[in-house]
């Protein structure tokens, strides 16, 4: 689990940085240490490995909580906090903004390594998800504009007849286009295609398809009445 991953340590106390680095490297992790949050933020854009952050909470300048908020959520590295003052408000704020763990100083090697292992596991899962989404985006780019419309409408739950009505084409044509979408996206089923649309953030709008692509000329209920 330690191969091809990186642990980034942030603490304004040099002796703490040295101790944490020694423990983590002895466990096989690649480690980089920083005396402040802004130095870490400058380094992050060039990090191309799954990584996690071990940071003190109270530091001069940008503290750990401000760092956490700056990182945001989603694809941000998992963050483990260390603090000598684990009060309830700090803990709640840290967890609310996505901290994976908050450990009280002095922390034992076993507790630290367990927290880092969990953070690295999350980083690896996030990396896998990023690769999967990147692959889906590449497949999506191979779709024609009309196939993208069909993709959005089909995964929104419309039947082939309804899609044809929306696009002003025949049901037979929609079936062919739908088959091409499934083939190009590498979907095994409609449910699989729906999951792909969800990961890509593709959804039909209230007008029936991504904005600007399709405009509904009759409400779904009126359409259904004629099917």
UniProtKB/TrEMBL annotation:
Residues 136-201 form the HTH luxR-type domain. SMART domains: HTH_LUXR, REC. GO terms for molecular function: DNA binding. Keywords: DNA-binding, Phosphoprotein, Transcription, Transcription regulation. Residues 6-120 form the Response regulatory domain. InterPro entries: CheY-like_superfamily, Sig_transdc_resp-reg_C-effctor, Sig_transdc_resp-reg_receiver, Tscrpt_reg_LuxR_C, WH-like_DNA-bd_sf. The modification 4-aspartylphosphate is found at residue 56. The keyword DNA-binding applies. Pfam families: GerE, Response_reg. This is DNA-binding response regulator. It comes from Anaeromyxobacter oryzae.
């Amino acid at each position: 689990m330690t191969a091809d991953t990186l642990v980034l340590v942030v603490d304004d106390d040099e002796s703490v940085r040295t101790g944490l680095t020694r423990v983590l490297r002895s466990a096989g992790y690649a480690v980089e240490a920083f005396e402040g949050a802004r130095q870490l933020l400058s380094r992050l854009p060039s990090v191309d490995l799954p990584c996690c952050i071990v940071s003190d909470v109270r530091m001069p300048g940008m503290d750990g909580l401000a760092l956490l908020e700056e990182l945001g959520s989603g694809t941000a590295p998992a963050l483990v906090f260390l603090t000598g003052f684990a009060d309830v408000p700090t803990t709640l704020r840290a967890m609310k903004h996505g901290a994976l763990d908050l450990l009280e100083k002095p922390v034992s090697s076993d507790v630290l390594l367990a927290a880092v292992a969990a953070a690295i596991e999350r980083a690896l899962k996030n990396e896998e998800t990023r690769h999967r989404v990147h692959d889906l985006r590449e497949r999506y780019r191979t779709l024609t504009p009309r196939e993208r419309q069909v993709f959005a409408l089909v995964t929104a739950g419309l039947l082939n007849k309804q899609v044809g009505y929306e696009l002003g084409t025949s049901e037979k044509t929609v079936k062919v286009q739908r088959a091409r979408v499934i083939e190009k996206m590498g979907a095994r089923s409609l449910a699989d295609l729906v999951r792909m649309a969800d990961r890509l953030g593709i959804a039909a709008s209230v007008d029936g398809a991504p904005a600007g692509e399709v405009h509904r000329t009759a409400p779904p209920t009126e359409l259904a009445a004629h099917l």
